[in-house]
């Protein structure tokens, strides 16, 4: 339109700043088709700094899968191929990756990311088999800048994983998982994660003794989330120990389950 600027005439830096707020589906299937300048901007590594794969539908019948196959003229869709495309466009500047919970991710994908994303700061792991969990310590030790790690359940290699984090990830400050938190787990959290600022153990089996140990031992903790846990009640001593923490969320936690059964011997992991 006469007298009005067009979107494609926007300076590249401004366009990149806008596009990096979009999700991966838009960056792969919508934005590049608008015009040449938008396509060029969508390929900038800053647009691929955060790879949130968890919000995408990778099912064979999903819109993303079918549209991606049509656009790139593929006979079959492979999650690994999509991941490699996204990581390549990040040009070793990727800082955050959130893997799908259940679909598609293999240990080969995780090792690929450990090699190609050296600047990773935040990692959200998928569900892994017990056999694959043994390799987690080898992975985390490669990310020197790792600050935050999230997983669905405490892995069998938990203690070894924290040892690797302690040795190699000097900026590590956030952990989220659930599971049966034993005394040795509590001691490892306290002793091996000295700069821990955020800890989420919601829906875990967390005995009162372990909770008090975390409250007393994690000196830099700013937020502790232990909602809907089994093994403790937020009594006066627990609340008093938590006064030094900026955010202490413990709602829904209780000592026994609904059947009045103390799960002290339960370790689902």
How do the helices and strands line up, and which of them pair or pack?
Elements lengths: L11 H8 L4 H6 L6 H7 L7 E3 L10 H9 L7 H12 L5 E3 L8 H10 L5 E3 L5 H4 L2 H5 L7 E3 L7 H11 L5 E3 L6 H10 L5 E3 L7 H10 L5 E3 L10 H6 L5 E3 L20
Parallel strand pairs: 1-2, 2-3, 3-4, 4-5, 5-6, 6-7, 7-8
Helix pairs in contact: 1-3, 5-6, 9-10, 10-11
List keywords for this structure.
269 residues; 2 domains; eight-stranded parallel beta sheet; disordered C terminus; LRR_dom_sf; F-box-like_dom_sf; (wild Malaysian banana) hypothetical protein; SCF ubiquitin ligase complex binding
Description:
InterPro entries: F-box-like_dom_sf, LRR_dom_sf. This is (wild Malaysian banana) hypothetical protein. One of its GO terms (molecular function) is SCF ubiquitin ligase complex binding. The chain has 2 domains: about 50-170, no CATH class; about 175-269, no CATH class. Helices cover about 35% and strands about 10% of the residues. It has an 8-stranded parallel β-sheet with strand order 1-2-3-4-5-6-7-8, with no helix packed on it. It has helices spanning about 10-20, 25-30, 35-40, 65-70, 80-90, 105-115, 130-135, 135-140, 160-170, 185-190, 210-215, 235-240, and strands at about 50, 95-100, 120-125, 150, 175, 200, 225, 245-250. The N and C termini lie far apart (about 65 Å). The radius of gyration is 22 Å and the shape is elongated. The protein is an alpha/beta fold and about 270 residues long. The relative contact order is 0.07. Mean pLDDT is about 90; it is low at about 260-269. The longest helix is centred in the first third of the chain and has 12 residues, at about 80-90. The protein contains 12 helices and 8 strands.
């Amino acid at each position: 339109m006469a007298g009005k600027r067009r979107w494609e005439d926007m300076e590249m830096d401004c366009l990149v700043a806008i596009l990096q707020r979009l999700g991966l589906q838009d960056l792969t299937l919508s934005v590049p088709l608008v015009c040449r300048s938008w396509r060029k901007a969508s390929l900038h590594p800053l647009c691929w700094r955060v790879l949130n794969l968890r919000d995408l539908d990778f099912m064979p019948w999903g819109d993303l899968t079918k549209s991606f196959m049509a656009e790139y003229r593929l006979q079959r869709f492979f999650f690994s191929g999509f991941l490699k495309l996204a990581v390549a466009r990040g040009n070793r500047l990727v800082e955050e990756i959130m893997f799908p919970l259940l679909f598609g991710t293999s240990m080969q994908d995780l090792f690929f990311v450990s090699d190609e994303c050296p600047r990773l700061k935040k990692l959200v792991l998928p569900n892994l088999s017990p056999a694959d969990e043994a390799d987690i310590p080898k992975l985390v030790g490669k990310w020197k800048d790792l600050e935050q790690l999230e997983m669905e359940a405490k892995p069998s290699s938990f203690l070894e994983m924290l040892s690797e984090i302690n040795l190699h990830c000097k900026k590590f400050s956030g952990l989220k998982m659930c599971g049966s938190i034993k005394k040795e787990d509590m001691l490892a959290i306290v002793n091996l994660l000295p700069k821990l600022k955020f800890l989420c153990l919601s829906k875990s089996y967390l005995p009162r003794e372990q909770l008090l140990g975390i409250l007393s031992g994690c000196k830099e903790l700013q937020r502790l989330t232990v909602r809907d846990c089994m093994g403790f009640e937020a009594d006066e001593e627990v609340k008093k120990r938590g006064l030094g923490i900026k955010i202490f969320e413990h709602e829904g936690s209780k000592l026994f389950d609904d059947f009045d059964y103390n799960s002290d011997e339960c370790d689902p992991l």
